[in-house]
Automatic annotation (TrEMBL):
Keywords: 2Fe-2S, Iron, Iron-sulfur, Metal-binding, Oxidoreductase. This is 2Fe-2S ferredoxin-type domain-containing protein. InterPro entries: 2Fe-2S-bd, 2Fe-2S-bd_dom_sf, 2Fe-2S_ferredoxin-like_sf, 2Fe-2S_ferredoxin-type, 2Fe2S_fd_BS, Beta-grasp_dom_sf, Diverse_Oxidoreductases. Residues 1-76 form the 2Fe-2S ferredoxin-type domain. It comes from the Bacteria.
Length: 153
């Protein structure tokens, strides 16, 4: 039994310590907003924050994150930066199929926490590990700029 801090709460997870964070979230804690995409940390669909930094939950074992703060998409609505990003996502009609969007949002939030005035190159760099099969990259960039402007206001 491991204790994980998820979205500000200490939760008990009865799983093998080698279990990836993704499966502990989805299967053990019923937090299904974080998605499985590739299982090899290549697509970004499984992105969560570990102590504020984006990580790939599909390859990170729960034993490696015990004692650290994990934040998932479920907590973004209550976070000022997360809410700004989600609101901008809606304004710009970013999602099409929506499958990659929780990972996209988590990466965008991490970017805006570190840099409130990102340039296109900053956005491209921060979002480069997140793949969108629908190709909404221009809308994602516009939404990140919109969220940054909303946070400045």
């Amino acid at each position: 039994m491991l204790t994980l801090n998820i979205n500000g709460r200490d939760l008990q997870v009865d799983a093998d310590p080698a279990t990836p964070v993704l499966w502990a979230l989805r299967d053990n804690l019923n937090l299904t907003g974080t998605k499985f995409g590739c299982g090899a940390a290549l697509c970004g669909a499984c992105t969560v924050h570990l102590d504020g930094a984006p990580i790939r939950a599909c390859i990170t074992p729960i034993a490696a994150v015990a004692g650290q703060a994990i934040t998932t998409i479920e907590a973004m609505q209550d976070d000022p930066v997360g809410k700004a990003v989600q609101d901008a996502w809606v304004r710009h009609d970013v999602p099409q199929c929506g499958y990659c969007q929780s990972g996209q949002v988590m990466s965008a939030v991490a970017l805006l926490r570190a840099n409130r005035r990102p340039l296109d190159a900053d956005i491209d760099n921060a979002m480069s590990g997140n793949l969108c099969r629908c190709g909404t990259y221009q809308r994602i960039r516009a939404a990140i700029k919109d969220a940054a402007a909303a946070l400045e206001a």
